[in-house]
């Protein structure tokens, strides 16, 4: 597989603020890649560098095999971008903006344009100033999804969309990938990333902290065990087991977090007290995410 | 008073029986304080500037004519001709005070109207359009409070500026009662525009629409009184002056008749307009205008950044073209009357000092007016060029530059539009003035040719102004607004430099100083080429900066 986007050791500072501090990112051709991070983590800065709007201070970024700063024109014909906060010209209608952006990219699929306008229930005759936030977002989404491109860069594209439209968006993105397209989806809406993305990169303070498929990430993380036992165990004994953390024992009730790979030993130990009931929850993306952000960045 | 009391709404007073009926004004004081804080630089700076211009130019006149009795007859003859009266308003009297404030009474009042307009619009329609009013409106804020706060602040700004100017005028030695009349004259204009803008803000959904109505009304009022003032003393056209609020303010005649009672007319107009604004406010929703917005086409024909830029500039350019047609007509029609009013060599010399020029007095008149038109065109060029920065800060440019459009092509589109637009309006003013003047001379082709040539010959100076804008946008985008200060600097150097006897290397900073005095003078191609080179160099530096820097 080839990489659509390859970023290595990307650095960018604004005055004294470090926005990107050696970021790595690898997006494979044909995948939907989730780009997760809290506000201010550097997601938008990364996208702006990939768009050639900003120049990196260090590191390298390759986009569709080209240099995003040097080859603006040829690269931009092959991609479409949706910003998180879409600003439209107050006196141009949504339809005019869609056609303009389409013409400035590689061209517009007429059929897809009509289809997307219908599915997103967008009124293209309204002027930019009279659209609500969600509708402005739809204008940019329709323009991007109807464009004849191979890569979509989406920066929190569903902010302001209602759940119905979010579903339409997810379908449209999946169709785009099915047709061979690549998507970089920056977001902090975890359910969205979880349901459409093939792989995920989590960034924090301008650095990549986790990267991989959801399954891989889950392996890296903890499974929550909750058990009711026949006899009360000793909290210290459980906590002493390898790969176990967050042990809470109240009477015969135990909850703890167990790293993948150590589950067997823990179950064996608990078994000695007689297991009355047991639930085990694999981590949701939300938990993965919270885990990365709960504590201050660990220094490796 | 007991130590504890039931919580009450901020506006309800103790002793009021029953649940207080909402006046819709709750929170006005707090909004007023917020607005005043946001304008804490704009309003005092504008007030001080206006005062300083009145006092400064009066002082310069006093210094120029230490013996008023010598100045009055000559100056009065010069100034009391339709051409200058159309621009500055009539001279109130023969007194040196009236002559010393001739240029500043009306124009200063117009600037005060602009201040009133900016303050009212900023805190009403702009806030509403940006959605900030919604945030405030969800708090304990009455429906009428934002408009009330904006009107109060603008009223205070107008009255404060008027009072400050009276004080400044008296301080430099202008007569007290005349100075008070000057303050009254300004208050009449400013208060009326507080009301006009308050109404305009209710009519349309956008701050731009508000600008269109309020500034359009100001332009119309200015032209009405210009036509009225320039009409002969027994012509029915003089009534036109009374149809314009700016005309009422003229009728105060500071340092002349001192008709302070005209203030009543201004206050009535102010009260009626503000009441109308509040009545309109009742009839509309937040964010909506009284006039509905119409849907547009669902398909677009824009294919390139150039097309987009032209489309975005269209409305502005149409407005300026209409304005320059009118300006050309006024200037052209006044050409003939200049000669009949000015026939002494001293006066011609005085006019030359004011405007600079060679050849006949009519040529000098045209050269002066066309130079004003060129400075106006430079303002248009700057406004169109600095749109690059507006597009950037509003975030709209992101979507455009994420397409195959490159920065350079995008910037070039803006520059080309600015160059073409300025050339167009200057050609228009020259053509129209030439057509009208041709009626007087009988040689239409010759007049058009001369005046179009003269107005287009000013283009290199306009280009330098555009280039300064490009330079700032490219190298120091945060300071883009400085270009306006630069233009005002050029204007001041050109207007007051010769009168204040500034050394020539100072006045030479202004590109307008290097223009040939046309019509009448001879074309100095070396100077014009120099301007073109400067403009090209500044533009190149700006574009190089734009290519390198981050886009916000």
TrEMBL record, chain A:
<dbReference type="Pfam" id="PF00005">
    <property type="entry name" value="ABC_tran"/>
</dbReference>
<dbReference type="InterPro" id="IPR027417">
    <property type="entry name" value="P-loop_NTPase"/>
</dbReference>
<dbReference type="GO" id="GO:0005886">
    <property type="term" value="C:plasma membrane"/>
</dbReference>
<keyword id="KW-0067">ATP-binding</keyword>
<dbReference type="InterPro" id="IPR017871">
    <property type="entry name" value="ABC_transporter-like_CS"/>
</dbReference>
<protein>
    <submittedName>
        <fullName>ABC-2 type transport system ATP-binding protein</fullName>
    </submittedName>
</protein>
<dbReference type="InterPro" id="IPR003439">
    <property type="entry name" value="ABC_transporter-like_ATP-bd"/>
</dbReference>
<keyword id="KW-0046">Antibiotic resistance</keyword>
<feature type="domain" description="ABC transporter">
    <location>
        <begin position="5"/>
        <end position="230"/>
    </location>
</feature>
<dbReference type="GO" id="GO:0005524">
    <property type="term" value="F:ATP binding"/>
</dbReference>
<dbReference type="InterPro" id="IPR003593">
    <property type="entry name" value="AAA+_ATPase"/>
</dbReference>
<comment type="similarity">
    <text>Belongs to the ABC transporter superfamily.</text>
</comment>
<dbReference type="GO" id="GO:0016887">
    <property type="term" value="F:ATP hydrolysis activity"/>
</dbReference>
<keyword id="KW-0813">Transport</keyword>
<dbReference type="GO" id="GO:0046677">
    <property type="term" value="P:response to antibiotic"/>
</dbReference>
<dbReference type="InterPro" id="IPR050763">
    <property type="entry name" value="ABC_transporter_ATP-binding"/>
</dbReference>
<keyword id="KW-0547">Nucleotide-binding</keyword>
TrEMBL record, chain B:
<feature type="transmembrane region" description="Helical">
    <location>
        <begin position="147"/>
        <end position="174"/>
    </location>
</feature>
<feature type="compositionally biased region" description="Low complexity">
    <location>
        <begin position="9"/>
        <end position="26"/>
    </location>
</feature>
<keyword id="KW-0812">Transmembrane</keyword>
<feature type="transmembrane region" description="Helical">
    <location>
        <begin position="98"/>
        <end position="120"/>
    </location>
</feature>
<feature type="transmembrane region" description="Helical">
    <location>
        <begin position="411"/>
        <end position="436"/>
    </location>
</feature>
<feature type="transmembrane region" description="Helical">
    <location>
        <begin position="528"/>
        <end position="546"/>
    </location>
</feature>
<keyword id="KW-1133">Transmembrane helix</keyword>
<feature type="transmembrane region" description="Helical">
    <location>
        <begin position="317"/>
        <end position="338"/>
    </location>
</feature>
<feature type="transmembrane region" description="Helical">
    <location>
        <begin position="260"/>
        <end position="281"/>
    </location>
</feature>
<feature type="transmembrane region" description="Helical">
    <location>
        <begin position="358"/>
        <end position="384"/>
    </location>
</feature>
<keyword id="KW-0472">Membrane</keyword>
<feature type="transmembrane region" description="Helical">
    <location>
        <begin position="180"/>
        <end position="203"/>
    </location>
</feature>
<feature type="transmembrane region" description="Helical">
    <location>
        <begin position="210"/>
        <end position="228"/>
    </location>
</feature>
<protein>
    <submittedName>
        <fullName>ABC-2 type transport system permease protein</fullName>
    </submittedName>
</protein>
<feature type="transmembrane region" description="Helical">
    <location>
        <begin position="41"/>
        <end position="62"/>
    </location>
</feature>
<feature type="transmembrane region" description="Helical">
    <location>
        <begin position="482"/>
        <end position="508"/>
    </location>
</feature>
<feature type="transmembrane region" description="Helical">
    <location>
        <begin position="456"/>
        <end position="475"/>
    </location>
</feature>
<feature type="region of interest" description="Disordered">
    <location>
        <begin position="1"/>
        <end position="26"/>
    </location>
</feature>
């Amino acid at each position: 597989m080839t990489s659509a986007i390859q970023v290595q050791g990307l650095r960018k500072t604004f005055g004294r603020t470090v926005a990107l501090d050696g970021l790595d990112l690898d997006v494979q051709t044909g995948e939907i890649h989730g780009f997760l991070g809290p506000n201010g983590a550097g997601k938008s800065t990364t996208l702006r560098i990939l768009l050639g709007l900003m120049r990196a201070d260090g590191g390298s970024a390759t986009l569709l095999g080209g240099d995003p700063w040097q080859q603006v024109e040829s690269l931009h014909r092959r991609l479409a971008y949706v910003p998180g906060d879409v600003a439209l010209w107050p006196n141009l209608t949504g339809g005019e903006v869609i056609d303009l952006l389409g013409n400035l990219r590689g061209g517009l699929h007429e059929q897809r344009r009509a289809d997307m306008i219908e599915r997103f229930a967008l009124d293209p005759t309204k002027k930019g100033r009279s659209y609500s936030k969600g509708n402005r977002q739809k204008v940019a989404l329709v323009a991007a999804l109807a464009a004849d491109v191979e890569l979509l860069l989406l920066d929190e594209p569903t902010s302001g969309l209602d759940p119905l439209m979010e579903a339409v968006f997810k379908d449209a993105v999946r169709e785009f990938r099915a047709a061979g397209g690549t998507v970089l989806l920056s977001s902090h809406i975890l359910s969205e990333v979880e349901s459409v993305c093939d792989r995920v990169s989590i960034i924090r303070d301008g650095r990549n902290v986790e990267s991989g498929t959801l399954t891989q990430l889950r392996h890296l993380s903890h499974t929550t065990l909750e058990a009711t036992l026949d006899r009360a165990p000793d909290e210290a004994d459980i906590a002493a087991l390898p790969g176990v953390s967050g042990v809470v024992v109240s009477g015969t009730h135990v909850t703890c977090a167990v790293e993948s790979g150590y589950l067997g030993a823990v179950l064996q130990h608990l078994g000695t007290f007689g297991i009355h009931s047991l639930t085990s929850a694999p981590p949701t993306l939300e938990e993965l995410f919270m885990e990365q952000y709960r504590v201050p960045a660990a220094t490796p | 008073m007991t130590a504890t009391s039931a919580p009450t709404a901020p506006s309800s007073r103790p002793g009021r029986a029953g649940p207080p009926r909402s006046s819709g004004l709750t929170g006005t004081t707090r909004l007023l304080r917020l607005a005043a804080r946001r304008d804490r630089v704009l309003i005092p700076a504008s007030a001080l500037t206006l005062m300083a211009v009145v006092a400064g130019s009066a002082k310069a006149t006093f210094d120029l004519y230490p013996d008023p009795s010598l100045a009055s007859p000559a100056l009065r003859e010069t100034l009391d001709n339709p051409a200058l009266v159309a621009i500055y308003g009539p001279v109130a009297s023969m007194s040196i005070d009236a002559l010393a404030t001739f240029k500043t009474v009306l124009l200063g009042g117009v600037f005060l109207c602009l201040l009133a307009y900016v303050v009212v619009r900023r805190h009403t329609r702009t806030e509403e359009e940006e959605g900030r009013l919604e945030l405030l409106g969800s708090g304990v804020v009455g429906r009428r409070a934002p408009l009330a706060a904006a009107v109060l602040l603008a009223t205070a700004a107008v009255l404060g500026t008027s009072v400050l100017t009276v004080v400044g005028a008296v301080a430099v030695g202008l007569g007290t009662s005349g100075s008070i009349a000057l303050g009254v004259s300004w208050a009449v204009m400013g208060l009326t525009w507080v009301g006009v803008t308050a109404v305009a803000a209710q009519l349309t959904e956008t701050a731009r629409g508000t600008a269109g109505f309020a500034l359009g009304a100001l332009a119309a009022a200015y032209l009405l009184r210009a036509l009225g003032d320039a009409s002969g003393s027994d012509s029915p056209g003089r009534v036109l002056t009374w149809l314009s609020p700016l005309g009422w303010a003229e009728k105060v005649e500071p340092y002349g008749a001192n008709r302070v009672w005209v203030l009543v007319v201004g206050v009535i107009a102010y009260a009626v307009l503000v009441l109308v604004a509040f009545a309109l406010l009742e009839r509309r929703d937040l964010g909506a205008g009284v006039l509905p917005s119409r849907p547009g086409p669902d398909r677009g024909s824009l294919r390139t950044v150039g097309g987009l830029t032209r489309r975005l500039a269209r409305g502005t350019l149409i407005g300026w073209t209409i304005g320059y047609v009118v300006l050309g007509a006024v200037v052209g029609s006044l050409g003939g009357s200049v000669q009949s009013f000015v026939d002494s060599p001293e006066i011609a010399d005085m006019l030359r000092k004011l405007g600079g020029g060679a050849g006949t007095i009519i040529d000098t008149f045209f050269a002066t007016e066309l130079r004003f038109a060129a400075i106006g065109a430079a303002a248009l060029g700057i406004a169109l060029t600095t749109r690059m920065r507006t597009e950037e800060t509003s975030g709209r440019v992101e979507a455009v530059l994420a397409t195959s459009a490159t920065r350079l092509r995008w910037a070039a589109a803006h520059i080309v539009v600015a160059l073409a637009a300025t050339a167009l309006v200057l050609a228009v003013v020259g053509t129209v003035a030439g057509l009208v003047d041709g009626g007087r001379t009988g040689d239409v082709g010759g007049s058009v040719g001369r005046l179009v040539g003269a107005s287009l010959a000013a283009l290199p100076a306009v280009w330098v102004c555009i280039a300064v804008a490009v330079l700032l946008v490219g190298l120091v985008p945060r300071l883009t607004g400085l270009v306006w200060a630069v233009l005002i600097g050029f204007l001041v150097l050109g207007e007051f430099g010769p009168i204040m006897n500034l050394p020539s290397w100072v006045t030479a900073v202004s590109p307008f100083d290097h223009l040939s005095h046309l019509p009448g003078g001879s074309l100095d191609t070396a100077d014009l080429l120099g301007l073109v080179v400067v403009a090209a160099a500044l533009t190149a530096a700006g574009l190089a900066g734009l290519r390198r820097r981050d886009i916000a």
